[in-house]
Every structure is written in C-alpha cells, then in structure tokens.
Amino acid sequence: MQGNKLLYGLTLASGMLECLCFAGAVFGYASLVFVLKVDGYFSQGCVSIPGTNNTLENCSGQDEMFSLVFTIASFLNNFMSLVNGYLFDRFGTMVTRLLGIIIVCDEFVFHCPAAYSELLFPALSCIAVGGILLLLTNIQVGNLFATHRSTIITVYNGAFDSSAAVFFIIKVLYEQGISLRSSFVVLSVCSIIHIARTFLLMPKTHIPYPLPQNYTYGLTCGKANTYNVEKSEKMRHGETTASQESNTPPAPVEETEAQVMSFRSCVLSWFFLWHLLWLSLMQLRHYLFIGTLNPMLNRLANNDPDLVSQYTNAFALTQLCGVLCAPWNGLIMDRHKGKPLAPGETDQEADLRSSFLSLFLTSLQCLLFSVCASIPLLPLQYFTFVVQVLNRSFLYGGNAAFISIAFPACHFGKLYGLVMSVSAVVSLLQYPCFALVKGPLGGDPFIVDIALTLLTLVVFIHPVYVFIHCRKLARNRADNTQTETTGSFILAEAKL
User: Fold this and answer.
1) 299, CA 20 to 30 Å: which among 76, 141, 237, 480?
2) 330-346: per-residue pLDDT in tens?
3) E runs forming strands in 275-334
4) Domains and CATH numbers, the chain
5) 0.85 exceeded by the pTM?
C-alpha cells in the first residue's frame, strides 16, 4: 500500500511538471510574436507610409498573418480534441500519449527561417495539438485521489495555462543571444520525459473511477490487480457472468444511473448544451484577447517597442500564476467532500450542487475581464492580465471537472473532445473580428469589445440552470421524505 502511495505521488508530481513545462505553450504566443517580428517573420506585410521618408511602416498585414497563425492553431487545439477523445476512450493512455509525443517532436525538431514564414502555421499547430493530448491523458490522474479529484483536475489545467510562460522564457533567452532554433531543439530533447512517464508512470489503458483496491500500473502492474477496462465496460451494460453476479456486490445507485446514460443522451442533455455555450463564449473572448494582444499594446503604447516589451513580459509572467489560481477552483468544487450528504442525496448530486459556485464565479470573472480589456487605458492592462489568467484557470479546470462530475466516466474522453471541438468552431469568429477591427473600424476594437462583453452575459445561464436543477432535486427529496414520514405515521396509527 505504501508503494502505491509513492507511485501515485510520483505520477501526480511528474504530470504537474509535464503540463507546466510543455502542454500549453501555445498560449504564450504573444511573447513569441515579439521575437518573430524582430526576426522579420511576415515582414512582407509591412509597407512604408507615404510622406514619412520610409521611416514609418504600416504593419497591419503582418499583424493579420500572426493573428491567423494563432487562430488556426487554437482552432486545431480544440477541434482535434474530438478525435483525441475518441482515441483516448478507444485505445487508452499509451497510444494517445505516444501520438502526442510524436506530434510535439515533429514541431520542435524543425524551426523555419523567416524566409519560410508560412511554416509557422503547421509549427504552432503541432504545439497546440500535441499539448492537448498530453493534458487529456493527465486529467485522469485525479482519479487516484478521490477526495481531491476536482482539485487535481483544476490544478493540472492551471499548469497547462501556466506553460504559456515557456515562450516568455524563450523570449528572454533570445534577448540574451540564444537563437530560437536552439531553444526548440532543447525542448525536443526534453520529450524523453514524456516517453519515460508513458511507460513508467502511466497506465496502458485508463485509470478507473472509483479506484479498485490495490490498483497499480506501470512497471508494477500485474495480472492479479490490473484493471480490465473492457471487462468493466461489459459490466456497465449488464454483461456479467453468473459467478460475477453472485460474487460482485451491487453498484451504488448513482453509479448505475450514470452507467445506463448513453453518449447520445449526454450530448442532447441541457447540462451539456448550456455547458458548451458557457465554454464557447468565454473561450472566444480569451482567444481574441491573446491573438490581438501585440497590436493592442502597440496601439496603446504608441508603437514604443520598449514599452510593448515591458507589457508583453508582464503578461507572460502573470501566466505563470495559472497553476497558483487553479487550486482555488478545485477547492471550491471539493469543499463538500468528507461532509455528510443530505438525506437521499447521491454523491453526484452533491458534486453538482458544489459546482454551481465555481461556474458562477468563472462567469463573473470573465465579465470583469472583458470590461477591463475593453477600456483603452494602458496601465489598466496590468489588472486585465491578472483577471485574465485567473479566469482561464477557472474556465478550463472547471470545464474538465464539470464533465467528469455530470456525465459517466466511460464517455469522458468523447464528451471532453466534443465540447472542445465545437467550441473551437465558435473560436474561429476571432479572425473576422480581428479583420473587422483592422478594416472598417480603423484599428479601434472598442465596438467589438463591447459586443463581446454584452455577449458574455449569456454565460450566466449555465450556473443558474445548475442551481435550479439542484434546488429541484432537493425539493423532490424533501417531498419524498415527508411522504414517507407521513405514511409511516399513518401505518403506526392504524396498528394502534
């Protein structure tokens, strides 16, 4: 048992390192853009302004190409999650991780020179897709720690957000004379960490929930205590043998109810639809902010490169705090653990009731972030950066945790992939928004920012729906309890 605890601890710590240093580097794109501009990427998009002796340039074309690179990469980051989720549910952890490692290494090994700027499109896309595969396989580590499951899921997502600081470190090293190619080669060599974790500290298939007694994996995994996923799936659908029926204790009521819920019924439920809208709208707001941060800072700083660099560094440093903010959300969602349930309440209902506060606070943070980002005041952006990283940590951690709570574990990969994929289609709206700002609006994003802020109000529907649902369940339990009590009293009177 002590050996299992050590194995679980190593898996947790190494997974944190993996998410923190590699998985979400794509979201540090603003720092990378600063370096790429210095190296002359997409410089053909800059044209001299007539009448200025070629001393001033209009680089809106360059900014548009950089925005398009991020739009496509962030789209694939989420859209491919549908395929990734199916692969994870169907083939397990090892196959999914090896695919992610191959994709990440393909990007890190080649770094294109400025003459081939278009190669940035597949390069950044590989970072995005490979990173999300690593995160997807790490989310299940929360199953090893039942009482802190949501906290660990949110912490991993926070580490994913904080890995945006990788490009900030590359920017700092570049300013010290270390080339981009050298930095990416070092990152590719570090992929040996992913390979070691895949074979030593991760299961071949999945980590089950709830966890079987004496469950092991990695090198210590043996036939006697290996969890058979296919057997579990058959048991979920009633395909048990006579000996299993006689020797296996009945599953808890809440687990059985979740097991009979089909994938189609999950997708068509109001829980899923409102959650999808909740994630999509807030993600669009964040993606547009990250993708247009560099031109926004240039506009507010009057194209002062030193000032733009200062704010870019500040933004990158705040991303490091994602891993510190994420546990707050997990603690909010796990605050009911260890406390007695209400009469007739199931564990899933208690988890849903606890998730309402997390969903509401995430929506409120996004509204505040959107309002601050809409105000064209440069010093205020320091506060905007803080609220932004706090909200992103709550958003993605809460997304994964809510799906694991509200729906059966056997559909987690597919549902997580589907919600990320559909939200990716919505995130494509960031590019027409950027084109609208650069074109008809003359570079002033105020109208677009206000429109997105008003649209953010829609996300409050999701926490309100969850709250009403939980209140309805509590009212029904109270009515049933009262009916049973009345019936017992009448029966006792009759006997007298």
Assistant:
1) 76
2) 788 877 776 777 776 67
3) none
4) 14-45+60-210+269-483 (1.20.1250.20)
5) no
